[in-house]
Design brief:
Blueprint: E1 2-7, H1 11-28, E2 32-37, H2 40-45, E3 53-57, H3 61-73, E4 78-83, H4 91-94, E5 99-102, H5 107-124, E6 127-131, E7 136-140, E8 144-150, E9 153-158, E10 161-165, H6 171-178, E11 183-187, E12 190-193, E13 197-201, E14 204-207, E15 210-213, H7 219-232, H8 237-240, H9 245-249
Length: 251
């Protein structure tokens, strides 16, 4: 169960967000634990790292400094900034914020944020054990950029580096197991994590900085699953923000 903290002294806005979250719970059939706080000072001074995400209303730089304190000892928690103004948006980068929303926060905003949080939560709960010749390594799906097969050896390209495996699995078998986790093949050699696809140009896709080819044989398969991913996640910007829209619409 996801646990959220809403920190905002705007009573009407808090009620609107809680109603949106209740509606979202009914829509997906999962429960979400919601705690709201109307005093940011009390929340900061008594903070415990028990939350998956904090939705924090920002009105001045003191709020940003308070969040920096939280981030300094809780790197795991996701932070969503909400405000009446866009002037603090750049501060979100310093805080590694999940998103920055302008008030009034809409149901579409809440749904987009919650979809991302649930996606991350599902990935955290799905570790992959990679067997290599000299060691056993456990990584989470959210840490895997893509999986490559070369000379019958699997190479996991991850945030921890490249890990070679002797699991004996084929990419086709891995795709069947991981497709519902947004992993899809773009050609016979690569199984990619769509969450790390930054740009599509022609027949190339940028995955975490590496350019991989979308082969003719896998083109329809790839774009069908890409469109499902976009629809399911309300066009999450991981791909969409870099101008792939026109490319995607052609398929």
């Amino acid at each position: 169960m996801l646990s959220l903290a809403i920190v905002d002294n705007d009573y009407q806005n808090v009620i609107a967000m809680k109603n949106a979250l209740i509606h979202y719970q009914k829509e997906i059939g999962k429960k979400i634990k919601i705690n709201d706080f109307d005093c940011s000072d009390d929340f900061i001074s008594n903070y415990l790292p028990n939350y998956d995400a904090i939705i924090f209303s920002v009105s001045d730089l003191n709020d940003i400094r308070a969040l920096e304190k939280i981030r300094s000892f809780d790197e795991r928690v996701d932070i969503v900034l909400i405000s009446d103004t866009s002037k603090y948006a750049l501060c979100g980068y310093r805080l590694d914020a999940l998103d920055y929303l302008l008030k009034p926060v809409s149901y579409c905003d809440i749904k987009r944020i919650m979809n991302q949080l649930l996606l991350k939560d599902n990935e955290k709960e799905t570790p992959v054990v990679i067997l290599s010749r000299n060691q056993i390594t456990k990584v989470f799906l959210s840490e895997i950029y893509y999986i490559e097969i070369c000379n019958h050896t699997l190479a996991f390209h991850t945030s921890k580096g490249i890990i070679s495996a002797c699991n004996g699995k084929s990419l086709k078998e891995l795709e069947a197991k991981l497709m519902d986790k947004n992993f899809i093949r773009c050609n016979s050699s690569y199984l990619i994590n769509l969450n790390y696809c930054h740009e599509i140009k022609g027949d190339e896709i940028n995955v975490a900085g590496d350019l991989l080819r979308i082969s003719r044989a896998f083109k329809n398969h790839f774009y069908e699953n890409l469109n499902r991913y976009l629809q399911k996640n309300l066009l999450i910007n991981a791909i969409y923000k870099y101008g792939a829209k026109s490319t995607i619409q052609n398929y």
